[in-house]
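User: I'm putting together a teaching handout on how multi-component assemblies are represented. Below are the sequence lines for each component of a complex, exactly as they appear in our records. Could you produce the 3D structure of the whole assembly as structure tokens, so the students can see both representations side by side? Please keep the chain order the same as the input.
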Amino acid sequence: GQQVMQIPQYQHVQEGEDFTTYCNSSTTLSNIQWYKQRPGGHPVFLIQLVKSGEVKKQKRLTFQFGEAKKNSSLHITATQTTDVGTYFCAVIPMDSNYQLIWGAGTKLIIKP
Amino acid sequence: NAGVTQTPKFQVLKTGQSMTLQCAQDMNHEYMSWYRQDPGMGLRLIHYSVGAGITDQGEVPNGYNVSRSTTEDFPLRLLSAAPSQTSVYFCASRGLSYEQYFGPGTRLTVT
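Assistant: Of course. Below is the structure of the complete assembly, with chains in the same order as your input.
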């Protein structure tokens, strides 16, 4: 069935370094959502991308939707300890029943 | 608005016991769902409902039942708990743009 690949599984960064996670689909997507889950917490909706080539920013977070609507990225500039957590993408394929398909998540770890 | 609430927060069961995890939302969302999340893993859909009286199976429905008698409530029943059901369970409701709002989760241990 439809699968979503999210890479990397983990990323260790020094505080102040940048972080990027990628979400890739084999089929064209209707939209993609990004969520953040803090350790011990629940997933929290960050943003939704709908248009081909769309770029949205939230402070230090930049979200991009690929031109072919098959991939997306989340980039965090100058990470802070408050960014620690797991970032999930969730996609709705074109011509689907609007069920979300979840990526496995990328865990952001700040090195001490 | 309380959003999505779940009870209990923690639960320990013995193998073979049954229990119901409660979920309620006050956002008048039609679509609700249950997920399980195993340590270090992503979210797997157990059951979902598109409105009162309508439920359907997700990716991992075996061992779980749901019902939806009202828009607000969507309880998840474990019929006969097994150690493989040790997990964190999240209930979610879906907004008009398909974004999901999650409850705080129930951490379940089956011994």
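A couple of points students might notice: Chain A is about 0% helix and 55% strand. The mean pLDDT of chain A is 95.
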